[in-house]
Design goal:
alpha+beta, 27% helix, 9 helices, 20 strands, eight-stranded mixed sheet, single chain, elongated
């Protein structure tokens, strides 16, 4: 007699796919596009009801030039940003995606920043292959006949980046999806990956009570990448046998932490700038409270850096509302380069979450990483599993380059 404590289970239906991509944000779509163009069978799995609804749609929509990233410390960011910028401008032109190469001024607000900070940025950029920067003076910026004329900026000098721009990220996502589907890929929305495990040379994913046998799995679901990949690695390790796989370093991958970035919109005051205006990079982990114009000409400021407590592991536990009281620090930061900002003219707008591989409360640890991290089978020992972690800024700019890179890895 069967014990009342044991219930018969119905075997899960199994399907087979060449490559499953978990996450249909800008990175997942870029990878899917690149793979499908090579004739690869691709299934995009997205837990939300629409594409790019999290990190990909909550950012500054800036096409970065590739200025900040030290090639020795951040080789992926430096490489992918510069390559991705060129690919993105070309793609936008070919697909009629709205964008504007408006340029950017990185402003110094004291003599030390002018004499030391600006030249250092230019040297970083040259090391990354960005050779179009130039240092401009305060007089240049205030000269109405200059190509960097910005009469509302107060500074001691600046670096001008002519290749920085802005983009309509929603149109970009839609175009990438159309390309991906045109080449045979399938998008499955509202599909939650419930688990996964290694099975010989395959990875088996459990999705909505069905199993998908995959030759390759690429985890690039932004804020959730670490949780999903860790679950697959843990289950694989628990089921390993002596003649199965050999997990490396207990299948450990870097943990993701979260940094919230808040944005405020300018109201009741004339739009002050014709191009983007950035302070020098924030040592706490961001690019400072910068001024961004959108394609309609409106101005927004942000993001700041609001570190989420290191104990938080579920991004859905983070309050996405912008605290209006943070405006005080915004006024102080913005007035360093735009002193004419009037009280009461900043309105709380939206926020975004950046996945980080380091945290200020957890220094000198193995997760103190500033670069993107791509965990392949050589890192964790699971054949066919590739995990993209810490894909924050300049992720949007880098997306097409990352897509091409991953396609080369999978198809090689």
């Amino acid at each position: 007699m069967q014990s009342s404590m044991v219930r018969p289970t119905t075997p899960l239906r199994q399907h087979h796919i060449q490559t499953a991509i978990i996450g249909a944000g800008v990175i997942g779509l870029a990878v899917g596009r690149a793979l499908s163009k090579k004739g690869h069978e691709v299934l995009l799995l997205e837990q939300a009801t629409s594409i790019g609804s999290e990190t990909s749609s909550r950012n500054s929509e800036v096409i970065h030039a590739g200025i900040y990233y030290d090639r020795k410390v951040m080789p992926y960011k430096s490489k992918f940003c510069v390559e991705g910028k060129q690919l993105l401008y070309q793609y936008c032109t070919e697909r009629d995606i709205p964008f504007k190469q408006c340029g950017k001024l990185l402003v110094a607000t004291d003599a030390d920043q002018r004499d030391n900070g600006l030249p250092k940025l230019v040297e970083h950029a040259k090391g990354n292959g960005v050779h179009d920067l130039r240092i401009v003076s305060n007089e240049d910026i205030n000269d109405p006949y200059s190509d960097v004329y910005e009469p509302n900026i107060a500074c001691t000098g600046a670096v001008y980046s002519p290749s920085t721009g802005i983009i309509d990220s929603h149109s970009l996502l839609q175009s990438m999806l159309a390309d991906t589907e045109e080449h045979g890929a399938t998008l499955a929305l509202n599909c939650r990956v419930e688990g996964g495990r290694s099975a010989g040379s395959n990875v088996i994913l459990t999705v909505d009570q069905e199993e998908i046998v995959c030759d390759n799995v690429i985890v690039c679901c932004g804020l959730h990448s670490h949780k999903i990949a860790s679950g697959i690695l843990l289950q694989s390790r628990n089921e390993q046998t002596s003649d199965n796989i050999h997990m490396k370093n207990e299948a450990r991958i870097p943990r993701q932490y979260y940094a919230k970035g808040n944005y405020f919109t300018l109201q009741n005051q004339k739009q002050p700038f014709a191009r983007l205006v950035y302070p020098l990079p924030d040592p706490r982990g961001g690019l400072g409270v910068h001024a961004t114009i959108d394609l309609s000409g409106s101005t927004k400021f942000g993001p700041d850096v609001e570190w989420i407590d290191a104990s938080v592991t579920n991004p859905y536990d983070i309050d996405m509302n912008v605290d209006p009281n943070r405006a005080k620090s915004f006024y102080a930061a913005i007035r360093k380069y735009w002193p004419d900002l009037k009280d009461g003219n900043l309105v709380a707008d939206y926020s975004g979450i950046r996945p980080k591989l380091w945290h200020p409360s957890r220094t000198n640890t193995e997760t103190d990483l500033k670069d993107f991290f791509i965990a392949s089978p050589m890192h964790h020992g699971v054949p066919g599993l590739h995990v993209l972690l810490g894909i924050e800024s300049p992720g949007l700019t880098s997306s097409l380059a990352i897509g091409n890179y991953m396609a080369e890895i999978i198809c090689s």
